[in-house]
């Protein structure tokens, strides 16, 4: 008897030998499906874990890279700190610049003085006239010892003066004399004095073809000497600054000048060399004489508010000690006063600290309203160039209104 041929089995799974319609086949298929699901879930879990682990590694490397850079929040400047793979020490020069920059020091000292003031004005807002008088006395004594009484007012060929087109300058201090004070603080009075005494002097647009601030800024950018480039053979520069920032047009008074230099909406003509170029000036002329004329802070701030909207110009400029947009609320008079008091105080301290670190510069501090003292100081240090006599009668009180800036002064209430 011949056995019948077995059925052809098409399935290739573990249940191949079991008829597909049997309960055993169904149970086997379910077990296989469950195992496959568990294996797939395990694989997906490991893959996600790997991705997360990889992201953590990338984030750690980012943190390490980020920590090699430090950012100064005070002035918005960024300094790269160089680190070596073999040492944890940073370069001393970079660290020193970051921690002890001149403006850092001036701002910290300014805040300390202003916060600690009681009934007296902080020293940064009043001229050190005693030191100026000692300077004058020391210079006169030294001249007398070197040349005798008869030569006190004669120009010395070895003196630190500049030759001008008007002849030999008779200054007893090195020239040029640079006014490092703020606008609306007696710059016109200084210019009139030096003009009267016979010195070659400039004042913003006066006796110059261009705003010297912008010329000095552009010269410094390409490492040209700012003084020789922009005021060659000048004895005195009595207003260095120019404050016409983006979005402001210059007040048009002199039609011959307005075509040459005026601020456009796409141009920033706001620069104060007395804030930003002291080091460059020193490198070019380490003996230049610095002038600072003081005016009561309330008077000066009121003048900024009331004279041709200078306050708005200052707010839209970007200075080392006054970032653009500050003060943010010009309607709050207390806020405005405190902001510009800090600005003025830090500027004075910055200049004083610079002269302390570079004692080859003479610093002459004057009180704008002290006529007698200013006559004595300026008359002694800057005699007439024509006859060598004291030029004290050249000092007067000049302003745009002709009355010592009082006409543009409105009482400032905090």
What does this structure look like?
The structure is a single chain. The protein is of the alpha/beta class. The protein has two domains: 31 residues, no CATH class; 293 residues, no CATH class. Helices cover 43% and strands 9% of the residues. The strands form four sheets. Strands 6-7-5-10-11 form a five-stranded parallel beta sheet, sandwiched between helices. Helix 3 crosses helix 13. The C terminus is likely disordered.
SSE blueprint:
Layout: H1 23-66, E1 69-72, E2 77-80, H2 92-99, H3 102-116, H4 129-147, E3 163-164, E4 167-168, E5 177-179, H5 187-197, E6 201-202, H6 212-221, H7 226-230, E7 236-237, E8 242-244, H8 255-258, E9 269-271, H9 273-276, H10 278-284, E10 289-294, H11 297-306, H12 310-316, H13 333-357, E11 363-367, H14 371-381
Parallel strand pairs: 5-7, 5-10, 6-7, 10-11
Antiparallel strand pairs: 1-2, 3-4, 8-9
Q: What key attributes describe this structure?
A:
alpha/beta, disordered C terminus, 5-stranded parallel sheet, 14 helices, 414 residues, elongated, two-stranded antiparallel ribbon
Explain briefly what this protein structure is.
With 414 residues, the chain is α/β, with parallel strands linked by helices. It has 14 helices and eleven strands.
